[in-house]
Design a protein that fits this description.
Helix content: 25-40%
Shape: globular
Strand content: 25-35%
Number of strands: 17
Strand order of the largest sheet: 4-3-8-7-6-5
CATH architecture of the largest domain: Roll
Structural class: alpha+beta
CATH class of the largest domain: Alpha Beta
Order of helices and strands: HHEEHHEEHEEEEHHHEEHEEEEEEEHH
Number of helices: 11
Distance between the termini: 40 Å
Largest sheet: 6 strands, mixed
């Protein structure tokens, strides 16, 4: 049995009980368990929340399974099976914001399927949660891993290699009434370019790696999780965000190491995007990313998150944008300037015990650079 098919049947059995051949019509069933009062949504109780999370997981995993089988001439129809007609889809530059299956198919999936032969999703982390910001009735899933294929024809002006390539991705999907109504899809295009031999940032401070999933290989949360564990993870993520805000407000109150040690293990791993790279331990993280970032960027404004969720020992968030800042002293090779530029960011976290152990980061660096007049794709002859 294919890996995707196993997941689809696994998730079906979680919600509906074991069956030999789950009927297709039941795959789209959605248990509307969010209570309504005077037409407005309110937070579900714990059992209903668990059921909603499992339903959302099943729908998104079935969506991924079908995408693995999709072809150029079928991908729009495949997307339409579970995406609403007016679904909002956010992607990194140059894909940006799209509406519905047609827009998403044309701007992203058809070009990907033309460029990659035998495309498959290799998922390392998958979980679901109730939004910890904004509308708490929202149910989201989070997925992270790589899209793997044979890179056989040009993609965004990047020349093909004829070899395996892995497009690093993180994706959030909001599920409502049995459909995907909102998506945030981040992929690391600079990391992909590096695999094709185009090292736009050859002097990045940390390491270029094809990044693995969590150390324990336990990131696929297909089964229900202890709600207390998810609350604990979200609490630590919230506390970590508060500590960053405090450091921005008063950089001298604590040393960077003191700040980080409150919420991170000393042997933390920060799986950063291409251009910055991956780094290991608090000390090297400070040296290879936090220090240069805080020294280079001033007037940092946190704009908040559209989604922040956790389940079990995993959590994450995204914003659109998360940060607005000024490259006052030079960063990523861009000379100092006074332009207010945005950072769209995804963070995925793995907690061990009472602190965070691993962090996978996706930044829409192409968008951030273009706002400062540096168009990386135009350098390749496309945009």
């Amino acid at each position: 049995m294919a890996r995707g098919e196993w997941r689809q049947r696994k998730l079906f059995s979680i919600v509906h009980g074991p069956q030999k051949n789950p009927p297709e019509h039941q795959e789209k069933h959605w248990c509307t368990r969010v209570q309504k009062t005077n037409g407005s949504r309110v937070m579900p109780d714990q059992q209903n929340l668990t059921d909603l999370l499992q339903d959302a997981k099943r729908i998104v995993q079935a969506h991924y399974h079908d995408l693995d089988e999709a072809k150029i001439d079928t991908v729009q129809e495949v997307l339409g099976r579970r995406m609403s007609k007016d679904a909002l889809w956010r992607g990194v530059h140059p894909f940006n914001t799209q509406t519905g299956p047609t827009g998403v198919a044309e701007i992203f999936w058809k070009p990907v399927l033309r460029s990659f032969s035998h495309l498959q999703r290799r998922e390392d982390i998958f979980f679901a949660g109730q939004n910890g910001t904004a509308d708490r009735s929202q149910i989201w899933t989070a997925s992270m891993g790589h899209l793997l294929g044979l890179f056989d024809t040009p993609f965004l002006g990047i020349p093909p290699t004829g070899k395996i390539s892995m497009l690093r991705y993180a994706e959030f999907n909001r599920v409502r009434d049995g459909q995907i109504v909102e998506t945030a899809f981040f992929c690391d295009l600079l990391h992909f370019m590096a695999q094709a031999g185009i090292r736009r940032f050859p002097d990045q401070r940390a390491a270029h790696l094809v990044q693995p999933g969590p150390k324990g290989h336990d990131g696929l949360l297909l089964d229900p999780q202890d709600p207390a564990e998810g609350r604990k993870t979200l609490h630590i993520i919230d506390r970590m965000i508060d500590s960053i805000d405090a450091a921005n407000a008063d950089p001298r109150a604590k040393t960077p190491k003191e700040e980080l040690q409150e919420n991170w293990h000393d042997d933390m791993i920060w799986w950063g995007p291409e251009g910055i790279g991956a780094t290991f331990t608090i000390d090297r993280y400070i040296e290879q990313h936090q220090g240069p970032f805080r020294q280079g960027m001033e007037s940092r404004v946190f704009n908040g998150h559209l989604c922040r969720i956790a389940e079990g020992a995993f959590g994450g968030f995204f914003g659109w944008p998360n940060l607005t800042l000024t490259n006052t002293h030079g960063f990523l090779g861009v000379p100092p300037n006074d332009i207010r530029a945005d950072m769209r960011v995804v963070d995925i976290y793995h907690r061990k015990g009472d602190k965070l152990a691993e962090n996978w980061i996706f930044i829409d660096i192409l968008h951030f650079l273009k706002m400062q007049g540096v168009d990386v794709l135009a350098e390749l002859g496309t945009d």
